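Lab notebook, bench 4. Still working through the backlog of constructs that have no structural model yet. Next entry is a single chain of 255 residues. Request: give me the structure tokens for it.
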Amino acid sequence: MLAEERRQQVQKIVEERGRVTIEEIVEKFSVSAVTARTDLDVLAERGSAMRSHGGAVRLLSAVVDYPLRFKESLHHAEKARIGVAAAQILRPHQTIILDSGTTTAQIARQIKTARVLPLTVITNALNVAYELAETEGISLIMIGGILRSASSSFVGPQAERMLHDLHADHLFLAVDGLHPEAGYSTPDILEAQLNAMMIRISNEVTVVADASKFGRRSLSIIGKIECAKRIITDDRVDSEMANALRAKGIELVVV
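Model written out:
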């Protein structure tokens, strides 16, 4: 069987079942794990599937609000590298905001071992708070409000009122969609409103997003591309997209 024929069959499995693992490809097509990973990488580059830890899943719609546990399995290695790069920007005694998301959770994990303490961390995300709750040198401020079960984060008027009286040196913002013209977006209206307030009370904004978020537009716009100083992403980012963002004055950090 030719490589292209095998990839078309793998794509068909993903479309019908919603997912496929490397082990399943190895067993079904009698190929090596390296070949299976290459096939999935090719499908991901074409936009035919989305790579996840140990396999691939059907391409997500940017409008759908997927559960946090599911998102954690997607592009894990890339998010970890983004987390390392983001933590390197921090300086001791800063007040920062960590938005909800699996990429910002990676930043929280890096903060625990980075030499940037003490820090004051404001967050609306339960997973981020859990990561930092017992970290010495971290003053943690938890934003309350309406719990979004999909993201395990708090949003709504109560959360916005809490943020209104606060100020941050740096916001690390995770987004579901990122487009040079449309801006940054998320599937949830209340989250978009809270994110917009986070931007307003922060001196500096860094967007953290793996390359799968580029070119996508979700339901609710958070803000224009120019509202962030920089974007940290992984090395799968399209060169044309990267050039379009840099042309708008955005510092693009590729890891």
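Notes after review: The chain is about 40% helix and 25% strand. The mean pLDDT is 90. Flag for follow-up if needed.
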